[in-house]
Amino acid sequence: MSFGEQLRKDFGTVTLALIPVAIVINLVVGQIVSALNLPLFLDSIGTVLVGILAGPWAGLVTGLLTNLIWGLISSPVAAAFAPVAGVIGLVAGLCARYGLFRNWWKAAISGVLIGVAASFTAVPIRVFMFGGITGSGADFITAYLLATGSSLFGSVIITVLSTNVPDKVVTALVAWAIARALPQRFLARFPRAEAVTPSPQG
Amino acid sequence: MTLYIPGDGFLYRRHPVTKLVFMLCVAFLAFLGPGRWTPLLIFLAALLPLALFSGLVRPYGGALWRILAPLAFFLFVLHGLFNPAGRTVLFSVGPVAVKLEGVVFAALMTSRLLCVLGASLLFVFTTPPSALMLGLAQHGAPPWLTYVIGATLQIIPHMRARAAAITAAQQARGLETTGSLRVRARALMPMVTPLVLSSLVDAEERAIALEARAFRSSRPKTSLTELADPPVERVARQACVVCTLLLIGAGQWL
Amino acid sequence: MIRVEGLTYTYPFAGQPALRDVSLTVAAGEFVAIVGANDSGKSTLCYALTGYIPHHFHGAMLGSVQIAGMDSRSTPLAELVTVAGLVFQNPVNQISGARFTVYEEVAFGLENLGAPRAEMAARIDEALALVGLEGVADRSPYALSGGQQQRLALASILTMAPQVLVLDEPTAQLDPLGSRDLFAAIHRLSRRGATIIMAEHKLEWIARFADRVIALAGGQVVLDGAPREVLASPLLEQHAIGRTRFTQVAARARALGLTSSDALLPVTLEEAVDFFRPILPKAINA
Description:
The structure holds three protein chains of three kinds.
Chain A: H1 3-10, H2 13-35, H3 45-54, H4 56-73, H5 82-97, H6 104-130, H7 138-147, H8 152-181, H9 184-187
Helix pairs in contact in A: 2-3, 2-4, 3-4, 3-5, 3-8, 4-5, 5-6, 6-8, 7-8
Chain B: H1 16-32, H2 38-53, H3 57-82, E1 89-93, E2 96-99, H4 100-126, H5 129-138, H6 143-172, H7 181-186, H8 188-212, H9 231-253
Antiparallel strand pairs in B: 1-2
Chain C: E1 2-10, E2 19-26, E3 31-36, H1 42-50, H2 52-55, E4 60-67, E5 70-71, H3 77-83, E6 84-87, H4 102-113, H5 117-131, H6 146-158, E7 164-168, H7 176-191, E8 195-199, H8 203-209, E9 212-217, E10 220-225, H9 227-231, H10 235-238, H11 245-255, H12 269-276, H13 280-285
Parallel strand pairs in C: 3-8, 3-9, 6-7, 7-8
Antiparallel strand pairs in C: 1-2, 1-4, 4-5, 9-10
């Protein structure tokens, strides 16, 4: 299938109906997690799901729009991190396309890849736009690292990786568990359903 | 829905894309423009007066404080105390010392964020979502993009209500949501899974509804309403971009 | 208007066909009701009559469906929806989400069809009046009741002026008031000569207003005829379709020997009155 054809298939009507739902899942699940006082963000489950079910480009769009819309609703600074969210969807889609969501430990690996990619996209934004600050408790880690002699960049990299990678691993596992719970005939309606079906070798 | 606050005035009557361009130009100038005082200058000379004339000072100040205060706090503490470039000690607090260069850096970053946030808030406060979507569509945004933005905004309250209902139902069945970390972590999937699965089913049905409304038709789409986009604004947008580029260029080479 | 020939359809990954060798025709202006137990294929047939089968659901389709002269297999879905409109059960999921007021929501279909702006106001007003939603034109679609949302879905489809209207159990999720208002709107449409195909459980209503009733069981057509023929047939019980209250009471009276054993059972109130008038004195004394 040519790139153009695949893109048209990825962005069919079902995907277009899925993306708003996924964006809202990102926002609402993030709030559930916050209400449960869990030490995670889990605000990208929808993005990863779209990456799995509809491919990397749909995942990219979902991530970008999540932050842009959050900027319209609550905090415009969130829009600055749209590229990070976009990368999450993109990498999730690529992992799925290469079979990395077929079982739980492959999904965990995908989570690590997503977390690392997201972190490396986030760090330059954090450092150049926000002086390395997140405005949250993670800044204490950065402070400690700075105080013990690390550079600003280095401190931020470590802080961002340590908060992002575990979060994305859990995100990937949750998304995998949900995609796996979908019945085959329902899954078939999405453009990239074959990413979820376990291959014969497992 | 969004942070939009109904009102009237100069800003409210401008085309959304004009405000968007202005906001982006200010954002770029704040970070790439010449001089350390530029961001603060823009805020005091342009943004704050605009907020004043639009009758938005209260919510403006409130939002700026809500979003910036935590960032500013950590910026000043972190950089004042630990910025590697810090040398000149201003005063000491126990074992740590607050240094001038760090404080200056924090002040600069805060003023940049103030400027960018100030411009974005002006945009969001004065632009209703429907006008934004219409304005973007008029300037070539693909229909699927404006659809996704509008649909997301409308589904949010709907989904929040459903999440609350699922939480209540699960709690009635004995789900514990307070207590140790293990207990709370176990509460996650029972709350998230039904929400996501039911939403996916809805999305599938909504796709059928979209087809039924000929959304995928290849006929060129028309529009019920139209937003005025006077030539004056068109020129103003171009002037804005040119000035921004010139100023940034000047800052880099002079 | 609609011609179905030998339609057999199996959903992807399904063990057996949802529709088996279904053939029927619907003439312009007819109001056809489709009855059947759950899983009898009613929804599947509705999707096949509007082109979602095969285009949206894929799966294996044998036979043919002609909609207003277009073959459903070879015509793209985007064109089929301009001649065949579909309203389905869930009121909320039929809100496109693209627009913030009821008025604009109705306009959405017209915008997608490329209708000239000058025409829109008249067409939208007409559609809203037909379903009785003129008063809420400025409200958010999400702020309406279920019944109102369903009427909004109907208006949004009607404004596109389809030649055939297909409704898949439109009152299934509505309260009695909502159902009543929706049925009233559908009846108005039928009286104006619209071609309507409606899958429904509420037998008493279709007994009064449908021109024809088709009964489905196990994906096959088991009955196809006038309401009185179909709804009074003993086959309905056999296929778990149920009967109207009037039919049930009359069947009881017939079983008790109060009428001859081949008396035609009523399906509507008027027919029931005619059925019982001669036997009422006998029934009281029995």
